């Protein structure tokens, strides 16, 4: 639907560690089920739920009161802010636009990666978000106009969930370093271009050189990592009564805590050693394909 069957097969077979671009396949349902017009329509009709909309200007977020009322984005306010050069981000469209829900479910069935899809509208000559990295792999689809993506190699290894987030680790001097070095890759996406951006790559997307508004979709693929499998293995320990017996308050006393931890560690090792791997397979596969909760991604 996004990459074409051959490129999709390649992506699943050899997970990418550097960015690359493709052309949306001719038979992609993108365009029929979602277009720049559909996305603008959410704003123009007042249908966009404000909890799922962020507005940025030069890298900074605006307070929702500037553009929303009664839990919806106000069409007139949206137009004023777009005219001022603000970027609109319509988050998790898969949760409120059913055709994109089908897309994300399909991606998850094929890859085992849960995720969501977000749309961005950036007026020409402007920029919404600036330098940052994300905790997931992105597949960007340009629907209208153009956007320039300046990309740099990851600054940290394997950022995941709230570990090693760019907002937490940020050092202001990095931007000067990146600007001086120049990007490792630079892609100018135009209509029908697709960018595969691996987790952790630093990006500075902008429409400063564009002559018309840019509208793109970002499909997020939250990759599974050993931590995720480990949590499910240990989660299954709830079925073992030894993991449900009380640790009395005395066991939580700092003086007693080392013994408590050693005891639980021994239990965990014993439990995991006895785990029936074959029995875990369907549960893990089902979780990979179906689990969507933000708490467990
Ligand atoms: Fe990003």
UniProtKB/TrEMBL annotation:
Keywords: Iron, Metal-binding. InterPro entries: JmjC_dom, NO66-like. Pfam families: JmjC_2. This is JmjC domain-containing protein. Its cofactor is Fe(2+). It comes from Micromonospora craniellae. Residues 63-240 form the JmjC domain. SUPFAM superfamilies: Clavaminate synthase-like. GO terms for molecular function: histone H3K36 demethylase activity; histone H3K4 demethylase activity; metal ion binding. The keyword NADP does not apply. Gene3D superfamilies: Cupin (2.60.120.650).
